[in-house]
Amino acid sequence: MNLLLFTLTCTFLASLSIAIDLSDERLKNYPNIINLKGLHTIESNFKTPPSEKSISWYLNLYDSKDKSSKNEIKVTGCPLNSQICGLTEVKLPSSSKPILTELISFPSDLTFTFGEELNSSLVLKIPQITWGEKSLSAEIELICKTEGDDDSNYNFQFDESIDNLLKFKLESKNACKSSSSTPDDDKLKNPPNDQYDDSKGWGFFTWLFILFVLILASYIIGQAWINSNRIGGSHGFLEELIESILETFSKLPDFTREILGKFTGNGNRAGYSAV
Protein backbone atom coordinates (compact mmCIF):
# COMPACT_ATOMS: atom_id res chain seq x y z
CA MET A 1 0.00 0.00 0.00
CA ASN A 2 2.80 2.43 0.90
CA LEU A 3 4.65 1.53 -2.29
CA LEU A 4 1.52 2.18 -4.37
CA LEU A 5 0.97 5.52 -2.65
CA PHE A 6 4.61 6.50 -3.29
CA THR A 7 4.33 5.56 -6.97
CA LEU A 8 1.12 7.59 -7.42
CA THR A 9 2.71 10.57 -5.67
CA CYS A 10 5.78 10.46 -7.92
CA THR A 11 3.56 10.21 -10.99
CA PHE A 12 1.47 13.18 -9.83
CA LEU A 13 4.58 15.31 -9.15
CA ALA A 14 5.98 14.41 -12.56
CA SER A 15 2.76 15.60 -14.17
CA LEU A 16 3.19 18.99 -12.44
CA SER A 17 6.72 19.44 -13.75
CA ILE A 18 7.08 22.33 -16.16
CA ALA A 19 10.15 21.39 -18.23
CA ILE A 20 11.08 23.82 -21.01
CA ASP A 21 7.69 25.38 -21.64
CA LEU A 22 7.59 27.14 -25.01
CA SER A 23 4.44 28.98 -23.90
CA ASP A 24 6.46 30.79 -21.26
CA GLU A 25 5.80 34.54 -21.25
CA ARG A 26 9.53 35.18 -21.49
CA LEU A 27 9.51 33.71 -25.01
CA LYS A 28 6.74 35.95 -26.35
CA ASN A 29 9.15 37.70 -28.74
CA TYR A 30 9.63 34.37 -30.57
CA PRO A 31 6.21 33.88 -32.22
CA ASN A 32 7.02 30.62 -34.05
CA ILE A 33 9.07 28.92 -31.36
CA ILE A 34 5.98 26.97 -30.34
CA ASN A 35 6.47 24.84 -33.49
CA LEU A 36 9.60 23.33 -31.92
CA LYS A 37 7.58 21.39 -29.35
CA GLY A 38 8.18 17.69 -29.12
CA LEU A 39 11.11 15.30 -28.76
CA HIS A 40 14.43 16.09 -30.46
CA THR A 41 17.07 13.40 -30.79
CA ILE A 42 20.79 13.15 -31.50
CA GLU A 43 22.53 9.81 -31.95
CA SER A 44 26.24 9.16 -32.49
CA ASN A 45 27.77 5.73 -33.12
CA PHE A 46 31.40 4.77 -32.64
CA LYS A 47 33.42 1.68 -33.50
CA THR A 48 35.25 0.65 -30.33
CA PRO A 49 36.52 -2.86 -31.15
CA PRO A 50 35.54 -5.35 -30.12
CA SER A 51 32.45 -3.37 -29.08
CA GLU A 52 30.29 -0.60 -30.54
CA LYS A 53 29.30 2.48 -28.56
CA SER A 54 26.21 4.58 -29.06
CA ILE A 55 25.57 7.99 -27.45
CA SER A 56 22.04 9.36 -27.68
CA TRP A 57 20.67 12.70 -26.44
CA TYR A 58 16.99 13.51 -26.05
CA LEU A 59 15.53 16.99 -25.60
CA ASN A 60 11.86 17.50 -24.85
CA LEU A 61 10.30 20.89 -25.57
CA TYR A 62 6.85 21.31 -24.07
CA ASP A 63 3.82 23.48 -24.78
CA SER A 64 1.61 23.78 -21.70
CA LYS A 65 -1.23 25.33 -23.76
CA ASP A 66 -1.43 22.32 -26.09
CA LYS A 67 -3.18 19.29 -24.62
CA SER A 68 -1.46 17.00 -27.12
CA SER A 69 2.00 18.13 -26.01
CA LYS A 70 3.70 15.70 -23.61
CA ASN A 71 5.63 16.82 -20.54
CA GLU A 72 7.60 13.59 -20.45
CA ILE A 73 10.18 11.54 -22.35
CA LYS A 74 8.99 8.05 -23.26
CA VAL A 75 12.38 6.56 -24.09
CA THR A 76 13.64 3.25 -22.75
CA GLY A 77 16.35 3.93 -20.18
CA CYS A 78 15.39 7.60 -19.56
CA PRO A 79 13.46 8.69 -16.47
CA LEU A 80 9.93 9.64 -17.44
CA ASN A 81 10.17 13.18 -16.03
CA SER A 82 13.33 14.13 -17.96
CA GLN A 83 13.56 17.24 -20.10
CA ILE A 84 17.11 16.35 -21.22
CA CYS A 85 18.33 12.77 -21.20
CA GLY A 86 21.60 11.26 -22.35
CA LEU A 87 22.24 7.54 -22.80
CA THR A 88 25.53 5.80 -23.50
CA GLU A 89 25.19 2.17 -24.56
CA VAL A 90 27.80 -0.42 -25.45
CA LYS A 91 27.09 -3.44 -27.62
CA LEU A 92 29.36 -6.49 -27.36
CA PRO A 93 29.76 -9.07 -30.14
CA SER A 94 28.56 -11.81 -27.80
CA SER A 95 25.31 -10.01 -26.94
CA SER A 96 22.45 -8.76 -29.08
CA LYS A 97 21.24 -6.37 -26.41
CA PRO A 98 23.28 -3.23 -25.68
CA ILE A 99 24.44 -2.47 -22.15
CA LEU A 100 23.58 0.91 -20.65
CA THR A 101 26.82 2.31 -19.22
CA GLU A 102 25.95 5.99 -18.63
CA LEU A 103 22.74 7.87 -17.89
CA ILE A 104 22.45 11.66 -17.57
CA SER A 105 19.05 13.16 -16.83
CA PHE A 106 17.93 16.74 -16.20
CA PRO A 107 14.50 16.46 -14.57
CA SER A 108 11.60 18.57 -15.83
CA ASP A 109 11.11 20.36 -12.49
CA LEU A 110 14.26 22.42 -13.14
CA THR A 111 13.23 25.87 -14.36
CA PHE A 112 15.28 27.29 -17.21
CA THR A 113 16.75 30.78 -17.17
CA PHE A 114 17.93 33.08 -19.93
CA GLY A 115 21.57 33.29 -20.90
CA GLU A 116 22.91 35.45 -23.71
CA GLU A 117 20.27 36.79 -26.09
CA LEU A 118 21.36 38.03 -29.51
CA ASN A 119 19.51 38.92 -32.71
CA SER A 120 20.13 35.47 -34.16
CA SER A 121 20.22 33.22 -31.09
CA LEU A 122 18.90 32.69 -27.59
CA VAL A 123 20.50 30.60 -24.83
CA LEU A 124 18.40 28.66 -22.32
CA LYS A 125 20.26 27.61 -19.20
CA ILE A 126 19.32 24.52 -17.17
CA PRO A 127 20.43 24.42 -13.49
CA GLN A 128 22.98 21.93 -12.17
CA ILE A 129 22.33 18.33 -11.33
CA THR A 130 24.48 15.88 -9.40
CA TRP A 131 25.95 13.11 -11.53
CA GLY A 132 28.11 10.84 -9.43
CA GLU A 133 30.90 13.00 -8.04
CA LYS A 134 30.27 15.75 -10.60
CA SER A 135 27.83 18.62 -10.93
CA LEU A 136 26.53 19.07 -14.47
CA SER A 137 24.60 21.95 -16.02
CA ALA A 138 23.27 22.41 -19.54
CA GLU A 139 22.78 25.17 -22.10
CA ILE A 140 20.54 25.04 -25.16
CA GLU A 141 21.28 27.62 -27.85
CA LEU A 142 18.30 28.28 -30.09
CA ILE A 143 19.66 29.62 -33.39
CA CYS A 144 17.61 31.46 -35.99
CA LYS A 145 17.97 29.67 -39.33
CA THR A 146 17.40 32.12 -42.18
CA GLU A 147 17.96 29.69 -45.06
CA GLY A 148 15.30 27.33 -46.38
CA ASP A 149 11.51 27.54 -46.46
CA ASP A 150 10.61 24.38 -44.54
CA ASP A 151 9.41 25.39 -41.07
CA SER A 152 9.65 21.80 -39.82
CA ASN A 153 13.32 21.51 -40.75
CA TYR A 154 15.72 21.84 -37.84
CA ASN A 155 19.21 20.84 -36.84
CA PHE A 156 19.76 19.55 -33.29
CA GLN A 157 23.31 18.77 -32.19
CA PHE A 158 25.43 18.26 -29.13
CA ASP A 159 27.99 21.05 -29.27
CA GLU A 160 30.57 20.35 -26.57
CA SER A 161 31.21 19.66 -22.91
CA ILE A 162 33.43 22.18 -21.10
CA ASP A 163 33.96 22.37 -17.34
CA ASN A 164 30.96 20.17 -16.60
CA LEU A 165 28.75 22.24 -18.91
CA LEU A 166 26.83 20.40 -21.62
CA LYS A 167 26.08 22.64 -24.61
CA PHE A 168 23.43 21.90 -27.23
CA LYS A 169 22.40 23.74 -30.39
CA LEU A 170 19.01 23.73 -32.02
CA GLU A 171 18.92 25.59 -35.33
CA SER A 172 15.55 26.30 -36.92
CA LYS A 173 13.57 28.92 -38.78
CA ASN A 174 11.09 28.76 -35.89
CA ALA A 175 13.74 30.04 -33.47
CA CYS A 176 13.82 33.48 -35.09
CA LYS A 177 12.91 36.54 -33.08
CA SER A 178 10.02 38.76 -34.12
CA SER A 179 11.09 41.57 -36.46
CA SER A 180 8.35 43.93 -35.26
CA SER A 181 9.34 47.00 -33.28
CA THR A 182 7.62 49.95 -31.68
CA PRO A 183 7.36 53.30 -33.51
CA ASP A 184 9.74 54.83 -30.97
CA ASP A 185 12.32 52.18 -31.80
CA ASP A 186 11.92 52.91 -35.52
CA LYS A 187 12.54 56.60 -34.92
CA LEU A 188 15.69 55.81 -33.02
CA LYS A 189 16.96 53.40 -35.66
CA ASN A 190 15.89 55.46 -38.72
CA PRO A 191 15.76 59.18 -37.85
CA PRO A 192 14.09 61.52 -40.38
CA ASN A 193 16.28 63.02 -43.08
CA ASP A 194 15.99 66.56 -41.78
CA GLN A 195 17.09 65.49 -38.29
CA TYR A 196 19.92 63.48 -39.73
CA ASP A 197 21.14 66.39 -41.90
CA ASP A 198 21.04 68.79 -38.96
CA SER A 199 23.09 66.43 -36.86
CA LYS A 200 25.92 66.54 -39.38
CA GLY A 201 26.82 70.08 -38.28
CA TRP A 202 26.73 73.63 -39.62
CA GLY A 203 26.87 74.49 -43.31
CA PHE A 204 29.59 76.25 -45.29
CA PHE A 205 28.07 79.74 -45.00
CA THR A 206 27.65 79.36 -41.24
CA TRP A 207 31.32 78.58 -40.85
CA LEU A 208 32.17 81.48 -43.21
CA PHE A 209 30.14 83.85 -41.07
CA ILE A 210 31.81 82.60 -37.87
CA LEU A 211 35.25 83.06 -39.47
CA PHE A 212 34.31 86.60 -40.52
CA VAL A 213 33.18 87.47 -36.98
CA LEU A 214 36.38 86.08 -35.47
CA ILE A 215 38.56 88.08 -37.91
CA LEU A 216 36.54 91.22 -37.24
CA ALA A 217 36.79 90.78 -33.47
CA SER A 218 40.53 90.14 -33.70
CA TYR A 219 40.94 93.28 -35.80
CA ILE A 220 38.98 95.46 -33.35
CA ILE A 221 40.75 94.12 -30.26
CA GLY A 222 44.16 94.34 -31.92
CA GLN A 223 43.58 97.92 -33.04
CA ALA A 224 42.39 98.92 -29.56
CA TRP A 225 45.39 97.23 -27.96
CA ILE A 226 47.87 99.05 -30.18
CA ASN A 227 46.22 102.42 -29.59
CA SER A 228 45.96 101.88 -25.81
CA ASN A 229 49.68 101.09 -25.57
CA ARG A 230 50.36 104.61 -26.75
CA ILE A 231 48.23 106.01 -23.91
CA GLY A 232 48.84 103.36 -21.22
CA GLY A 233 46.54 101.96 -18.51
CA SER A 234 43.52 99.65 -18.64
CA HIS A 235 41.13 102.59 -18.75
CA GLY A 236 42.73 103.72 -22.00
CA PHE A 237 42.36 100.23 -23.52
CA LEU A 238 38.64 100.14 -22.70
CA GLU A 239 38.08 103.53 -24.27
CA GLU A 240 40.09 102.56 -27.36
CA LEU A 241 38.13 99.27 -27.63
CA ILE A 242 34.79 101.07 -27.60
CA GLU A 243 36.07 103.65 -30.07
CA SER A 244 37.43 100.89 -32.37
CA ILE A 245 34.10 99.06 -32.31
CA LEU A 246 32.16 102.19 -33.23
CA GLU A 247 34.64 103.15 -35.92
CA THR A 248 34.69 99.66 -37.45
CA PHE A 249 30.90 99.32 -37.56
CA SER A 250 30.59 102.79 -39.09
CA LYS A 251 32.84 101.66 -41.95
CA LEU A 252 31.01 98.34 -42.52
CA PRO A 253 28.40 99.69 -45.00
CA ASP A 254 31.05 101.20 -47.30
CA PHE A 255 33.20 98.07 -46.96
CA THR A 256 30.23 95.83 -47.80
CA ARG A 257 29.28 97.89 -50.85
CA GLU A 258 32.86 97.78 -52.07
CA ILE A 259 33.04 93.99 -51.72
CA LEU A 260 29.69 93.49 -53.47
CA GLY A 261 30.78 95.83 -56.23
CA LYS A 262 33.88 93.72 -56.88
CA PHE A 263 31.79 90.54 -57.12
CA THR A 264 29.00 92.01 -59.24
CA GLY A 265 31.24 94.23 -61.43
CA ASN A 266 29.28 97.39 -60.64
CA GLY A 267 32.18 99.22 -59.01
CA ASN A 268 33.74 102.38 -60.47
CA ARG A 269 36.28 101.54 -63.11
CA ALA A 270 38.92 103.84 -64.50
CA GLY A 271 38.87 103.96 -68.30
CA TYR A 272 40.68 105.57 -71.21
CA SER A 273 39.21 108.88 -72.45
CA ALA A 274 38.90 109.47 -76.12
CA VAL A 275 40.58 112.61 -77.50
From TrEMBL:
**A Pfam family hit:** ATG27
How does the UniProt record describe the way this protein sits in the membrane? Answer: Single-pass type I membrane protein; Single-pass membrane protein
**Does the record bear Mitochondrion in its keywords?**
yes
Annotated signal sequence is 1-19
Query: Where does it primarily localize?
Result: membrane
Q: Where is the MRH domain?
A: 8-178
Q: Where in the cell is it found?
A: Cytoplasmic vesicle membrane; Golgi apparatus membrane; Mitochondrion membrane
Q: Which GO terms describe its cellular component?
A: cytoplasmic vesicle membrane; Golgi membrane; mitochondrial membrane
**Entry keyword set:** Autophagy, Cytoplasmic vesicle, Disulfide bond, Golgi apparatus, Membrane, Mitochondrion, Signal, Transmembrane, Transmembrane helix
One GO-annotated biological process of the protein: autophagy
Record protein name field: Autophagy-related protein 27
The source's domain of life comes to: Eukaryota
Q: Which organism is it from?
A: [Candida] arabinofermentans NRRL YB-2248
> What residue intervals traverse the membrane?
201-221
Q: Which family is this protein grouped under?
A: Belongs to the ATG27 family.
In terms of PROSITE patterns, this protein maps to: MRH
